[in-house]
């Protein structure tokens, strides 16, 4: 589809206006200014007008409250239960954005907007991810500070993070941790590196998105505003 048609097809403006908007240098495709209205696009690009991303009508964005016990994969014949089983048939063309371990609960996004998914998972975008965690034993203040400053994980130090709401109940410690990296099994690994086993892990927020009152196993579509704001 031509860029000019893409803009009108997705409700930005009329075809005639799209021509002017493009020629005025207000449109960027994958970050580069494009002034030719007939530039071919297929919707997989990151297209913005005056810095605002244009969401294709063909894109869908879903937030799922993942239960424990489901593998984050699009198709793994060896996984008995996958997160795709939690979506209805008409949403099974979507892909998970990043991953949660099988035993982790919480907020998991899905989309068919590859550019958006890539942005969200790229470390340079520093998107905060917040988890409720329960670890075995008592988290000492000096261990907390050590984790917050960064611990070695597979030969590389983790970026500074924030731990709050620490509560010890006599046998284990509940806490909230916010990280902005997305390394494999990162939260479990961080606590394991200081000899604390993670008993329970739930992602409660990604950027400004939270689970709100979505029950385990339920999903909802994100609004355009939520997609843009993330
Ligand atoms: N960190 C982990 O260790 N596991 C997850 O599922 C998410 C973050």
Please characterize this protein's 3D structure.
The protein folds into three domains: 3-53, RNA-binding S4 domain (Structural Genomics Hypothetical 15.5 Kd Protein In mrcA-pckA Intergenic Region, Chain A, Roll); 61-123 and 213-229, Pseudouridine synthase I, catalytic domain, N-terminal subdomain (Alpha-Beta Plaits, 2-Layer Sandwich), CATH 3.30.70; 128-206, 2-Layer Sandwich (Alpha-Beta Plaits), CATH 3.30.70.1560. It is of the alpha+beta class and 230 residues long. Strands 5, 6, 7, 8, 11, 12, 13, 14 and 15 form a nine-stranded mixed sheet that branches. The protein has a four-stranded antiparallel sheet with strand order 2-1-3-4. It has helices spanning 3-9, 15-23, 114-121, 141-149, 186-192, 224-229; strands spanning 27-29, 32-33, 47-49, 52-53, 61-66, 95-97, 105-111, 129-136, 152-153, 156-157, 162-168, 172-179, 198-206, 209-210, 219-221. It binds uracil (URA). Uracil binds at residues 100-101, 104, 185-188, 201.
What's this entry about, in short?
The chain has 230 residues and is α+β, with helices and mostly antiparallel strands. 20% of the residues lie in helices and 29% in strands. β3 and β4 (52-53) form a beta hairpin.
């Amino acid at each position: 589809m031509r860029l000019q048609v893409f803009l009108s097809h997705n409700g930005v403006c009329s075809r005639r206006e799209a021509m002017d908007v493009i020629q005025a240098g207000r449109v960027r495709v994958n970050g580069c200014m494009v002034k030719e209205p007939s530039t071919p696009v297929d919707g997989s690009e990151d297209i913005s007008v005056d810095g605002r991303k244009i969401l294709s009508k063909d894109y869908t964005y879903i937030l799922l409250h993942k239960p424990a016990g489901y593998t984050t994969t699009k198709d793994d014949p060896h996984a008995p239960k996958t997160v795709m089983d939690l979506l209805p048939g008409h949403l099974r063309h979507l892909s998970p954005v990043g991953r949660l371990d099988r035993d982790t609960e919480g907020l998991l996004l899905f989309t068919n907007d590859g550019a958006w998914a890539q942005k969200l998972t790229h470390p340079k975008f520093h998107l905060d991810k917040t988890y409720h965690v329960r670890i075995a034993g008592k988290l000492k203040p000096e261990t907390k500070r050590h984790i917050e400053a960064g611990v070695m994980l597979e030969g590389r130090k983790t970026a500074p993070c924030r731990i709050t709401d620490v509560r010890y109940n006599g046998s284990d410690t509940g806490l909230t941790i916010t990280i902005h990296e997305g390394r494999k099994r990162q939260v479990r690994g961080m606590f394991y590196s200081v000899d604390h086993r993670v008993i329970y892990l739930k992602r409660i927020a990604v950027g400004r998105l939270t689970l709100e009152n979505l029950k385990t196993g339920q999903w909802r579509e994100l609004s355009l505003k939520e997609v843009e704001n993330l």
